[in-house]
Amino acid sequence: MQELDPNMKLAELHVHLGSSVDPATMWEIAHLQGIRLPTKDYWAFVDLITVNPSRIKSFEEYLKLFTWTDLIQSSPIAVERAVYQTIAGAYRKNNITQLELRFNPMKRNRNGEQDLDHIMMAAIRGLDRASIEYPVRAGLIVCLDRTFTYRQNQILVEKALKYSSRGIVGIDIAGPAKEGFRYSDYKELYAKARGGGLGLTVHAGEDDDYRSVVEVINSLEPDRIGHGVRIVHDEGTMDLVRENKVTLEICPSSNLNTHVVKDLDEMKWIFERIRSKGIKYTINTDGPEMLMTHLRNEMHLLLNSNILTKDELAKANEQAFASSFLK
Ligand SMILES: [Zn+2]
Fold first, then answer.
1. Residue boundaries of the structural domains of the chain
2. pTM of the full predicted structure?
3. For residue 57, with 0-12 CB atoms within 10 Å meaning exposed, 13-18 middle and 19 or more buried, which class applies?
4. Which residues surround ligand 1, an ion (CB under 5 A)?
5. Ligand 1 centre distance from Cα of residue 203 (Å)
6. Which contacts of 4-9 are long-range, i.e. CB under 8 A and separated by 24 or more positions?
7. Which CATH class is domain 10-322?
8. How far is the CA of 288 from the centre of ligand 1 (A)?
9. How far is the CA of 228 from the centre of ligand 1 (A)?
10. If you measure from the C-alpha of residue 251 to the centroid of ligand 1, how many angstroms do you get, rounded to a whole number?
11. Cα–Cα distance list, 302 to 51, 258, 315 (Å)
């Protein structure tokens, strides 16, 4: 077993709030707010909000786990606590000193029952508190959603811009696929976000094929792509990613658990293809607690499966610092 230097400072760019808070804290937050859970048993609750490889059969099933975590995090108190816990925990457990945390505030305001600005401010407060207590630089990314209306996503971009001087560093598009959704519809909104100084990333080339990455790069001109692993199936798309200097946010365990990547052999092949083209990439967890992993664990998985060397992992980590939206 090879090990990385435990003192190495890490940066992580792709982490969802809904999958990053440890189950014990989620349990406490749920009870604090009197949320009626489908179980009164703590261990059954852990099962409910974490990935069990024998139960998760598809990408859609994975996304369903967020139904509970998003609901539990749906109040200013819960959001503040969740953001604080994630950043503090990342530092304590993994020596992550630079972290970008993404979330969709509109999935945390109980369908408009709670004021979106309060949710945004609560997230910022959680970030500020963690940054005072630990030597961490952290930023928030606002996630738009593929199932939302254009108007809803437009409001999210407006909120991201409104709080860009307070710790919101970028925008993303996430969520399950929806019939009729087109990335290209968001061309103007993305340009507006860039004009306002926000970093741009988009989930693509994960559950959908490499063509989604082509559409995203041509219409949204992102700095980074969330996942993007499916580009390896097309030479032209790989060239496009490299020529546009787009950084991939690769999340190994997430892709294995959602069956986006079949096994470690396929993962090895994906990294070989990406490396051979000189495409920039970073290593991420997607959501450490839900996926029962953490960043150092992901790096050790790649190291001990002979997918990446220590030097390549160190380089991917440097790339994460370099491609961060935190200036
Ligand atoms: Zn993601």
1. 10-322
2. 0.96
3. exposed
4. 286
5. 7
6. 4/296, 4/299, 4/300, 4/303, 4/310, 4/313, 6/95, 7/95, 8/95, 8/314, 8/317, 9/95, 9/96, 9/97, 9/98
7. alpha beta
8. 11
9. 11
10. 8
11. 20, 18, 13
CA-CA distance, 62 to 178, in Å (whole number)?
Answer: 16
CA of 63 to the centre of ligand 1 (A): 10
CB 318 within 8 A of CB 281: no
Q: Quote the CA–CA distance of 198 and 140 in Å, as a whole number.
A: 11
CA of 319 to the centre of ligand 1 (A): 18
Distance from Cα 255 to the centre of ligand 1, integer Å: 10
What is the whole-number distance in angstroms between the Cα of residue 174 and the centre of ligand 1? 7
**Dist CA 139 CA 306 (whole Å):** 32
Beta-carbon contacts of 292 under 8 Å, excluding residues fewer than 6 positions away, are 50, 51
| pLDDT above 80 for 56 | no
Could you read off the pLDDT of 98-142 as tens digits, one per residue? 999 999 999 999 888 899 999 999 999 999 999 999 999 999 999
Residue 206 alpha carbon to ligand 1 centre in Å: 9
Closest CA relative to residue 158, chosen from 105, 122, 99? 105
Q: Are 226 and 249 in contact (CB under 8 A)?
A: yes
Both tokens of 49, joined, read: 């909000």
